[in-house]
Structure formats: C-alpha cells, structure tokens
Write a structure and sequence with these properties.
Keywords: Kinase, Transferase. Pfam families: Protoglobin. By secondary structure, this protein is mainly α. It has one domain (10-153): Globin-like (Orthogonal Bundle), CATH 1.10.490.10. It is built from ten helices and no strands. Helix 8 (118-129) runs antiparallel to helix 9 (135-169) and helix 9 packs across helix 10 (172-179). It is globular. The relative contact order is 0.16. The mean pLDDT is 96. Residues 55, 61, 64-65, 68, 73, 76-77, 80, 100, 103-104, 107, 109, 113-114, 117, 121 line the site of protoporphyrin IX containing FE.
Length: 182
Amino acid sequence: MAQDRASWTVKDEAALEELIQLMNLRPEEGALLKDLGPKAKEHAPTLTKTFYDRLFAHPNTAEYLKDVSLDRLHGMVQEWFTGMFCGVYDTEYARRRLRIGEIHVKIGLPVRYPLAMIDVVMPYGDQISRESAKPEETVAAFRKVLAMDVAIFNQAYEDNQLRHLAEMVGGERLARRLLSGS
Ligand code: HEM
C-alpha cells in the first residue's frame, strides 16, 4: 500500500510555488529568454500554423475546433508561446498558465493531446533559443520553462480529477490511495 507522501499536502498556490522552486530557473536564464522575446513573437504565427495544421489533420482533435474562433485561438496560442520568453516565471506566471490548462479540462479534452503538441512547440523554441549569444544555456533555459508549462498543464487535470474523486469517496487521502492502485 502506498505510504502517505509529503507532496500530497502541497496544494493550489503552494503547488505552483513548489514547482517554480523545483525548476530552479535562475534570473540569468530568464534574462537570456527575455532577450529573445521579439524573435519569439516574430516566429509565433508560423508556429501556430503548424500547430493547427497538426490538430486539423486528425479527426478526434479537429472535432474540438469546429465551433471556435480560429483567429482568436491563433492569437491566444501565439501569446502563450511568446509568454515563455517573458523572463519572469513567478506565481502569477504559473497561475496564468494553470488557467489555460483548466480551460482544456472544461472542454473535455484528453490530456494526451496537449501533451503531444509539445512535439510541435519544442523545435520552434529550440530554434529561437539557438539565436541567442549563449545558445546552449538558452536552449536549456527554454526546455525548463517548457517542462514547467507541461507540469502546470497536467496539474490542472490532476487537480480536477482528484477533487471529483475526493468528493465521491469522502476524502483526498483515500482518493490518492485509490489512484496509486492500493
Ligand atoms: C501545447 C498545447 C496547447 C496549448 C499551449 C493551448 C493553448 C490554448 C490557449 C492559450 C487557449 C486560450 C485560453 C483562454 O481562453 O484564455 C486555448 C483554448 C482552446 N484550445 Fe488549446 N492549447 C493546446 C492544445 C490544444 C489541443 C490539443 C486542442 C484540441 C484538440 C485545443 C483546443 C482548444 C480549444 C477548443 C480552445 C477554446 C476553448 C474555449 O474558449 O471554449 N488546445 N488553447
């Protein structure tokens, strides 16, 4: 049977703060990424084109895009992408990104789809990061920010599942034990 873990007590805002600490992004890394903000903005429209081409090529993902404003979505994903080059990755940043994850939970989108889309996002971010005067450090910093985003996106899904299961079984500790298979 799974033993209780300290991480189980870390919730909401504290989970975001913990994640920021875990990633340990240094201010110098933030500064390297911030320098590339204008370049990220420049490349963002090409990224979103590739992004939505991929989603439209697959019927199960295209289904989600039928009744939404694609102009708006293109703009939002461009903003999301350039946001990774903002230079400051604090609780407010994490909260904004968590809200994006929550929107995807609400539309009933299986988490495998957004996670798989990292395959489209990473090469663009890497390519832009290589244009820095310190390419290796900047690619590493970009990867950290991207990993943090993936973790936050996933956190939105886990929070939702745990909340519902905890309500059903009468407590979060029991819900966590059930989810660990014990
Ligand atoms: C890396 C993965 C993804 C990122 C970064 C992303 C980003 C975003 C952002 C920033 C928004 C706007 C949120 C807002 O209104 O504030 C959004 C909305 C939306 N996304 Fe995604 N998305 C991702 C994956 C997907 C996938 C795989 C699908 C569908 C197959 C999808 C479908 C949608 C839809 C339908 C909305 C509009 C929701 C609504 O306003 O009702 N997204 N996405």
